[in-house]
Amino acid sequence: MLKELEKQIRDLKKQLAEVQREQDILRLQPCMGDSEIMKKDGKVDELDGKAKNLERTIQDLTKRRLLLTSSKIGSYDSPSSDDSS
Questions:
Q1: CA distances from 46 to 3, 8, 52, 77 (A)
Q2: What is the C-alpha separation between 44 and 22, in angstroms, rounded?
Q3: What is the pLDDT at residue 84?
Q4: Count of CB atoms within 10 A of residue 19's CB?
Q5: CA nearest to 23, candidates 54, 56, 46
Q6: pLDDT 10s per residue in the chain (85 long)?
Q7: CB atoms near residue 33 (< 10 Å)
Q8: 43 in the Ramachandran plot: left (φ > 0), alpha (ψ -120 to 50) or beta?
């Protein structure tokens, strides 16, 4: 389960990097008229929405991964606790 989460996080981070690259390329492109500006703005808004969604998903999966790792660590009994009983 933990490895699956880590793989999902890695894949989402790659997707986020690709979206950010697209955003950078799009922002550098010149526009010649109102229609081009409107198309560019629409595409920028779409990419911004994708990026925010990916960031939110990455944060959620990271929190879930941390909870899983902390619960696994907490579920192990230390050897010294058996001796003290």
A1: 31, 22, 10, 49
A2: 9
A3: 46
A4: 20
A5: 46
A6: 889 999 999 999 999 999 999 999 999 989 889 999 999 999 999 999 999 999 999 999 999 999 888 877 766 555 554 444 4
A7: 8
A8: alpha
